[in-house]
Write a structure and sequence with these properties.
single chain, 376 residues, alpha/beta, Rossmann fold, 2 domains, 6-stranded parallel β-sheet
């Protein structure tokens, strides 16, 4: 795993001169060359230092994270022709009929199936179905409510008659017995990927970015002054009453598919994406950040929110200092006063990177990489 926006390597300062050139020309091992470089009196005065503790350890830090990576279990299709070379691979998104109208089914089953079919028309034969008993000889994407409503033995039977079964937990708590019956998990955040990989090392976890609702087109936000809004379940955010005039709340009932709020997106140039965490909350994607990026807006975020630091980077200017009402009020007032200034432009540049990292094409590529790994 890895974090941050950039990606510059060890040679970012150039290889042709100075200490890099001396290290490259040294006949010793890399460790010996590094030790010699530190002892060289001609070396630059800036010397290496141990990374601060708040950046984390090499196994779980801001830059790198370590997790087990098992080989997925391989199993041939019952019908060999179903997965033969030269034919599209049969893939089925399996959803629960009872929850067909929910937002999660609409997005991570219906829309994701359409997205993959559009980007890989010759690669996959995509089906979207609630028919649990009838499905066979396919790679099955067992979406959230279908996974929740079936027992481990039923999932094992499903796996036995298909090429592979990939579970989509979304914000559900992972169940050990069901996890053991799966070939893999499809995750919605890097944090969830690491968590599942560490807790269930025998079942590989694959991150597939949660796409933005495909009904939402890119838009040009207002440029006159700060216009901030929150989009989502109102109980899930923290907003002091004193900020009611600066941050507008636009409620969304995610138990069903609502679209009225989409028409209001062009009214805002900043999205309030602070989350009030509760004990019952499961994993969450950085979807509100992706939405803000799609709309050309900046995001007001908490550094500790899932994946926020990964996408925005440590130097993002609009991380709030905390959820204390006084701190939040001061932060928003400062944002309003600095609208259009250097920090605003920096945040906009970062959000453009977030938009590029959450396109439908990126989602389709991650999905294909997951299928390749599971069926190789």
């Amino acid at each position: 795993g890895g974090g941050g926006r950039g990606g510059g390597g060890a040679g970012a300062g150039g290889r042709g001169c100075g200490p890099w050139a001396r290290a490259a020309a040294a006949p010793e091992t890399a460790d010996a060359a590094f030790a010699a470089l530190l002892a060289d009196p001609a070396a630059p005065p800036a010397r290496p230092a141990i990374l601060p503790a708040h950046l984390g350890t090499p196994a779980d830090g801001i830059l790198l994270a370590e997790a087990p990576w098992p080989a997925p279990a391989r199993k041939a299709a019952a019908d060999p022709a179903a997965a033969s070379p030269g034919r599209p691979l049969p893939v089925a998104f399996l959803y629960a009929e009872r929850y067909a109208a929910s937002a999660s089914t609409f997005l991570r089953a219906g829309q994701l199936a359409e997205l993959v079919a559009e980007h890989h028309p010759e690669r996959y034969d995509i089906a979207w179905t609630p028919e649990f008993a009838a499905i066979r000889d396919r790679v099955v994407i067992l979406t959230k409510w279908a996974l929740q409503s079936r027992g481990a033995e039923e999932i094992a039977d499903l796996r036995a008659r298909n090429v592979a079964v990939i579970g989509v937990w979304d914000d559900l708590p992972a169940d050990a017995a069901k996890m053991a019956a799966l070939d893999a998990s499809m995750t919605l955040s890097h944090s969830q990927t690491l968590d599942l990989a560490r807790r269930f090392p025998a079942t590989p976890a694959f991150h597939v970015t949660h796409h933005v609702n495909r009904r939402i087109p890119p838009c040009t936000p207002p440029a006159d002054r700060l216009r901030a809004g929150y989009f989502g379940e109102l109980a899930n955010t923290a907003l002091p009453g004193a900020l009611g005039g600066l941050v507008e709340l636009v409620g969304i009932d995610t138990s069903k598919v609502e679209t009225d709020w989409i028409e209001r997106l062009p009214e805002f140039n900043a999205h309030w994406i602070l989350r009030r965490r509760r004990p019952i909350d499961g994993a969450k994607p950085f979807l509100k950040g992706f939405l803000a990026a799609r709309c050309g807006a900046v995001a007001v975020a908490a550094r500790g929110d899932e994946d926020a630091l990964y996408y925005l980077g440590d130097d993002y200017p609009f991380f709030v200092p905390g959820l204390d009402p006084g701190d939040l009020e001061a932060h928003v007032v400062a944002m309003a006063a600095g609208f259009g200034g250097p920090e605003w432009r920096q945040a906009r540049a970062i959000m453009e990177q977030v938009a590029a990292r959450s396109t439908d094409a990126v989602v389709a590529a991650e999905f294909a990489a997951m299928i390749d790994a599971v069926t190789a």
